[in-house]
TrEMBL record:
Family: In the C-terminal section; belongs to the PPC synthetase family. In the N-terminal section; belongs to the HFCD (homo-oligomeric flavin containing Cys decarboxylase) superfamily.
Keywords per UniProt: Decarboxylase, Flavoprotein, FMN, Ligase, Lyase, Magnesium, Metal-binding, Multifunctional enzyme
Residues spanning the membrane: none
GO annotation, cellular component aspect: phosphopantothenoylcysteine decarboxylase complex
Organism: Jannaschia pohangensis
EC number(s) stated in the UniProt entry for this protein: 4.1.1.36, 6.3.2.5
GO molecular function: FMN binding; metal ion binding; phosphopantothenate--cysteine ligase activity; phosphopantothenoylcysteine decarboxylase activity
Residues of the full protein shown: 175 to 397 of 397
UniProt-annotated binding residues for CTP: 102, 112, 130-133, 149, 163, 167
Protein name: Coenzyme A biosynthesis bifunctional protein CoaBC
Domain annotation DNA/pantothenate metabolism flavoprotein C-terminal: ranges: 10-220
GO terms of biological process kind: coenzyme A biosynthetic process; pantothenate catabolic process
Protein's job: Catalyzes two sequential steps in the biosynthesis of coenzyme A. In the first step cysteine is conjugated to 4'-phosphopantothenate to form 4-phosphopantothenoylcysteine. In the second step the latter compound is decarboxylated to form 4'-phosphopantotheine.
């Protein structure tokens, strides 16, 4: 028995996983968020850990607790997540499963916003958040495998293929998150894995099983 079998196929590898939503403040008591539960990212971090990887898990405020045995970095905003990701490199693999908010409120208030009695609603202004996946893909110390996600509601393959090119990542894990699929917030997932070789439709599986298969695929790619 050699070290490979004792430690698992990802022994000695550092894997960065992002997961969950981000929260973008409006004022100290209010924020903008999205419906990501963090379930798929959390399952992936656990599956990568189980294959022997050292996992840095950068997570927004998710519904599910982070897995045991990984290095957890909790963040709130997309801008915080970028900083935590930058601090976590170098890594052999980056798996960017977080549902990063696309915009933050650029005129967020430092104190609680109050109704002024006139019936007027506040005008929120938005600014685009940094693209963390694109940043990792272009980093000087780029991980040798960068995996992005694409949760879409229509034209899944076309949007996800374009995203892979635009963000210069190696793989995109695409899925259809239309409400009828029950995937967002549910326990199952049905992904299409897009690589340089093309697109593979995976069967509908639990998020845990999807994670185990993806982790094995990552180990194969690194071998
Ligand atoms: N992502 C990121 N930083 C952002 C936005 C997205 O790192 N500011 C990552 C996500 O973690 C995911 C991938 O990019 O791995 C695709 O996210 P998605 O929201 O589908 O892509 P966007 O470029 O934001 O496109 P869209 O307008 O469709 O939301
Ligand atoms: Ca987005």
């Amino acid at each position: 028995i050699d070290a490979f079998f004792l430690g698992g196929p990802l022994a000695g590898k550092h894997v960065l996983v992002t997961s969950g939503p981000t929260h973008e403040p409006i004022d100290p008591v209010r924020y903008i968020a999205n419906r990501s539960s963090g379930a798929q990212g959390t399952a992936l971090a656990a599956a990568l850990r189980d294959l022997g990887a050292r996992v840095t898990f950068v997570t927004g405020p998710a519904d599910v607790p982070p897995p045991a045995g990984v290095d957890v970095r909790r963040v709130q905003t997309a801008r915080d997540m970028l900083q935590a990701v930058q601090a976590a490199l170098p890594a052999d693999v980056a798996v960017m499963a977080a549902a990063v908010a696309d915009w933050h409120v650029s005129n967020a208030s430092g104190s609680k916003m109050k109704k002024d009695g006139s019936g007027a609603a506040p005008a929120l202004a938005f600014a685009e958040n940094p693209d963390i996946l694109a940043w990792v893909s272009r980093a000087a110390n780029r991980p040798s495998l960068v995996v992005g996600f694409a949760a879409e509601t229509d034209n899944v393959l076309a949007h996800a293929t374009a995203k892979r090119a635009r963000k210069e990542c190696d793989w995109i894990v695409a899925n259809d998150v239309s409400p009828a699929t029950g995937i967002m917030g549910g326990t199952e997932n049905a992904i299409t894995l897009i690589t340089a070789e093309g697109a593979e439709d995976w069967p509908r599986l639990t998020k845990d099983e999807t994670a185990r298969r993806l982790a094995l695929r990552i180990a194969e790619a690194l071998a």
